[in-house]
Amino acid sequence: MADLFLADSSHFAEISALVNAAYRGGEAGVGWTHEQGLVDGPRTSPEDIERELSGSGETVILCLRDHDDGPLLACVLLRKHTSHCYLGMLSVSPAAQDRGLGRAMLQHSEAHARAWGYDRIAITVLDVRDTLIAWYERRGYLRTGGSIPFPYDNKSLGRPRRGDLAFAVLEKNMSPFTPELR
Question: Per residue in 55-74, pLDDT tens?
Fold first, then answer.
């Protein structure tokens, strides 16, 4: 049975290693969700994770492993915003892909966002990642038409290999269907 838990300071290095493997590491080429060829260098660091989680509890990272002493298999960041919950850094170990862990982490994230009182969840994905965007769309996330420029001056996100990168904004409305009253 999988063990889902909230990250604390004892997990920062392990989360950073997982995220870097999923997004950029040599192992990332094994999976289909990597950004190799688009952005080089680390995606995050233990210090970045610490900064994300420091403060008032507005941000959490959900983590998943098969058992207490097993390796970290997946993680996802959730951040409270005024009108929605932001989901970021969804990572599954390349060695554990094709087990439905990404889908499971989305479901856990959506449940967590609902527990916080949100009915909308937003994500950003590099807009050239058509396969990944399609994966989110199959799970109910829709392109909003919004776009956020890639922060080329933020070296902590890696070194872009292209000058045309931007993030597509996708959103999922999690409120139950209510028929229109006439």
Answer: 777 999 999 998 878 899 99
User: Per-residue pLDDT tens for 105-140?
Assistant: 999 999 999 999 999 999 999 999 999 999 999 999
Return the closest-CA partner of residue 126 out of 180, 170, 179.
170
In DSSP notation, 15-75 reads HHHHHHHHHTSGGGGGSSS--TTTEES-S--HHHHHHHH-SSSSEEEEEEESSTTSPEEEE
Beta carbons of 33 and 22 less than 8 angstroms apart: yes
- What fold, for 3-173? Aminopeptidase (3.40.630)
End-to-end CA distance of the chain: 47
pTM value is 0.89
CA 24 to CA 35: how far, in whole Å?
6
